[in-house]
Amino acid sequence: LTGSAAFFAGIPDAVLVANGPMWCYFYALRHLERQCPAVSSQFYCTQADNHAVVYGTEECLLETLDTIRRRDCPSVVLIENSCSVSLIGDDIAGIAKQVDLNCPVVYVDSGGLAGGFAAGYRAAARAYLEQMPLTRSNGVLPGTVNLLGCTMGYYNADNDVQELKRMLKLAGYQVLACPGAGSSTEEIASMTSAALNVVVHEELGYDLAVLLNERYGMPYVSLPPPYGLQGSLTWLQSLQQHVSGGSIDLGKVRQEVSILERKVQAATLEMQRIWGDMWFEKTLIAAPGSVAVAMAEAVRTEWLDTGWLTVMAYDKQPSYPLPDCIDTFIEATGDSQVIERLLTELEGGLLLAGSNEKAILQQKAVSNVVCQNIALPVYDEVILSDRPFMGIQGACHMLERLWNQYIAYCQRRR
Known about the structure:
Order of helices and strands: HEHEHHEHHEHEHEHEHEHHEHEEHEHEH
Number of strands: 13
Radius of gyration: 22 Å
Mean pLDDT: 92
Number of helices: 16
Structural class: alpha/beta
Strand order of the largest sheet: 11-10-9-12-13
Largest sheet: 5 strands, parallel
Distance between the termini: 47 Å
Strand content: 15-25%
């Protein structure tokens, strides 16, 4: 339910309707609001009660759609059923036709307990393309790309997307569209003019890239997201192999990386003189698959020293090869006892995850663990600044956070 809503919440001229009880609606709204504060203005709920769950949601759905017709002028409307409503079998498309919305209506069944956030996002993206076909391009624009698999439903995601766009612009690329993360329906419709589709988060965007390739012949590449200074430069160099023409030049990027490397080196040497090397015997990274795998490489090759490095993905393993720096890879959908054991054994280690994993540490009374938020849900931190985790600027931000956490950890141990 939340993943489906997240894709459409990232389309500013779309309207969302959760066809179900208020509890389901507020679950999704709470998840999305922190990353996309204005989402409540485009997100409605039919407030289906017990009577509607048994006898059908036609009455409350028609009332909600009529409110949208009078208040909004959306380019597309998403209607997604919650679990209980999915059991009824209402003809949602037929009900929607009774209201003259003057725009396409996309229907997604988000019921059932199978599949998580990524599955809902993928289902919504596919349903969108079924109802909103793209404009076929007369030619490819040199040096242009689309970013696929971005979302406001990941932690600090908006800042990360803006940093990716900034880096690409600095290198001479032009981003035409970023469906599900800020692009309008008009921008998405024109995205076939791009020279390449770049999959940022594979668990979200890979299926969409394949679909666009099959229907519109658009080439794509799926790479680990760029974390760290060298990781960001490598990411841009990989894109350069797939996109030609335009004014692509990594000179300015290399210059910025070089300046920041000197700044990082000076600050790191100073901290090492006082606090020693930033070292952890064990590190556990728990996040969406693409985030966890890519961040693991930056952690081990650029940011700190660690012994055993474990990656726990909230979904399946990405299709690209796992970096050699990962000692253990597991899926969070696996044995919960294994996950609890890994967290219990993290005494004196580093945890990069969200509040769910930290809650287990508290339940098991595991202390002296340095915790850094990188994934939702997060209940003990607020981010109001424009400071990303990804990209060139994100590399400095993350290293700053890790050093400050490590210094506080050393002070507690004294």
